[in-house]
Specification:
GO biological process, one term: thiamine biosynthetic process
Strand content: 15-25%
CATH superfamily: Ribokinase
Number of domains: 1
Distance between the termini: 11 Å
Organism: Acutalibacter muris
CATH topology: UDP-N-acetylmuramoyl-L-alanine:D-glutamate ligase
Catalytic activity: 4-amino-2-methyl-5-(phosphooxymethyl)pyrimidine + ATP = 4-amino-2-methyl-5-(diphosphooxymethyl)pyrimidine + ADP; 4-amino-5-hydroxymethyl-2-methylpyrimidine + ATP = 4-amino-2-methyl-5-(phosphooxymethyl)pyrimidine + ADP + H(+)
Protein name: Hydroxymethylpyrimidine/phosphomethylpyrimidine kinase
Helix content: 40-55%
Order of helices and strands: EHEEHEHEHEHHEEEHHH
EC number: 2.7.1.49, 2.7.4.7
Number of strands: 9
Bound molecules: adenosine-5'-triphosphate, (4-amino-2-methylpyrimidin-5-yl)methyl dihydrogen phosphate
CATH architecture: 3-Layer(aba) Sandwich
Radius of gyration: 17 Å
CATH class: Alpha Beta
Structural class: alpha/beta
């Protein structure tokens, strides 16, 4: 069985972070493992408090996984501070980790900041060059590219700029756009739009975590990047389209939705 590791923060209410990653990887047919960067007291209404792991203990979590069950792909989510980012980069370089997907988590949907300002620079210089693909949403891409994004041309320019600066493919997610679910991939000098149908469901807590974990799982299974993205967008539409309605805020998605057609065959 193929394997994937999520390095991210937690969500006790199960919608985002490590919890979403493990559900997504499992449902996408790989063996899911985790290394926790921070314990986050959060639910569908927002983030209450964060307790960060020490870099040394995070390094030990990564070591025990790689020494025993080397992952076929690694997804990196919330990493709040420079020391943790540097530790991840150092360990992943040491193990020559493959299929690294970086979701540059900066601010929760609720508005709570999940990364320090200094750490954004460390993320740019240490983590992005290790990624096969980085998956910013529009506000994150504005910070990584150092430009405002208003129109489709801005999305294309920002993805190209980030890709060229850090030598990784960039999937710029349009979920924050008003009425579509179109994402733009810039990889190896070529730009491609991935079109999606906007699902009218306000319960989008953890969409970014889910998409990046599904991409990592599909890369682990040997699909190429564009195929992994297409399959992951389909998975996300299924999870969002199941219309689960839990919690008092922006609720989580349903991962054990009915898998149909090609996906069901693959997930067996
Ligand atoms: N309402 C929706 N209907 C269909 N697809 C959506 C919807 N909202 C987001 N998506 C898709 O979900 C994926 C994640 O995009 P989004 O921009 O929401 O990420 P994000 O902001 O990082 O997520 P998060 O809320 O976890 O921070 C993208 O593929 C996007 O197109
Ligand atoms: C541990 C962790 N990682 C990522 C997110 C972003 O997800 P969202 O923007 O949907 O709140 C989060 N809230 N918590």
């Amino acid at each position: 069985m193929r394997t994937a590791l999520s390095i991210a923060g937690t969500d006790p209410s199960g919608g985002a972070g490590i919890q979403a990653d493990l559900k997504t990887m499992t449902m996408n047919g790989v063996f899911a493992m985790s290394a926790i960067t921070a314990l986050v007291a959060q639910n569908t209404t927002g983030v209450r408090e964060i307790v960060e792991m020490t870099p040394d203990f995070l390094g030990q979590q990564i070591d025990v996984v790689f020494e025993d069950i080397p992952p076929d792909a690694v997804k990196i989510g919330m990493v709040a501070s420079c020391g943790l980012i540097e530790k991840i980069a150092e360990r992943l370089r040491f193990y020559q980790a493959r299929n690294v997907v970086v979701d540059p988590v900066m601010v929760a949907t609720s508005g709570y900041r999940l990364i320090s300002e200094e750490a954004v620079d460390t993320m740019k210089t240490c983590l992005l060059p290790l990624a096969v693909v980085v998956t910013p949403n529009i506000p994150e891409a504005e910070i990584l590219a150092g430009m405002d994004i208003h129109r489709q041309e801005d999305i294309e320019a920002a993805a190209k700029r980030i890709s060229e600066a850090y030598g990784c493919a960039v999937l710029l997610k349009g979920g924050h756009n008003i009425n579509d679910a179109n994402d733009y991939l810039y990889a190896g000098g070529v730009g491609t739009w991935f079109y999606g149908t906007h699902i009218n469901n306000p319960n989008t807590h953890g969409t970014g975590c889910t998409l990046s974990s599904a991409i990592a799982a599909n890369l682990a299974k040997g699909f190429d990047l564009p195929t992994s993205i297409r399959r992951s967008k389909k998975y996300l539409s299924g999870a969002l389209g199941a219309m689960l309605d839990l919690g008092k805020g922006r609720g989580p998605m349903q991962h054990n939705f009915n898998l149909t057609g090609e996906y069901a065959k693959e997930a067996e």
